[in-house]
Amino acid sequence: MRVLHIGKFYPPVPGGIESFTAELARAQRDAGMTVQALVHAPPGTFRTRARVHEGIPVEETACWGQLFYAPVSPTFPVVMARVVREFQPDLLHIHVPNTSGFFVPLVPGVRRLPRVIHWHADIPLDGGSRALRLAYPLYQPWERQLLAGADAVIATSSAYADASAALTPWRKKVTIIPLCLAERAVTPPAAPLRAGRQENSGC
Description:
Layout: E1 2-6, H1 16-30, E2 34-40, E3 49-53, E4 56-61, E5 65-67, E6 70-72, H2 76-87, E7 91-96, E8 115-119, H3 130-148, E9 152-155, H4 158-163, E10 174-176
Parallel strand pairs: 1-2, 1-7, 2-4, 7-8, 8-9, 9-10
Antiparallel strand pairs: 3-4, 5-6
């Protein structure tokens, strides 16, 4: 099987979704799948570039910056159409929130492909960002369209799926798969300092 992951960013860009996407891609590759990732380059990158991260091909679209935490990448649908044409995936694995995922139902040759939505988080409308609350009415119809066309939706816990207002109309599509990381991804805690010992011995 050929799987194309569509995400926001990819390591070494830090982030929980980014780290998990890379772990999942490696696990799928180790299971015999052919895997590639399509993401955005770090904000302020004005050209598309291809690289390989720990054996996984990664295509990064130009990213001019971010607006309401969303990457601004006008070339994303063009690059996505090219990557799909060249890579010929059997399945799209879309990690959200990520506004560029909204292009999937709009691009011929892409919208026909089976797709799984990995629902990492709702848009936090109860937080302190007034801008997000004002922008969400524009975001929500695209979010619904993406979910409506999904063949399956992955949530990371039953409690989270039950609490998600966005997933309520699509509960029959939701499968619960908890997040996990490989043992090598876990950094052991540092040994505690002995009583009376200062971290900087020169102080």
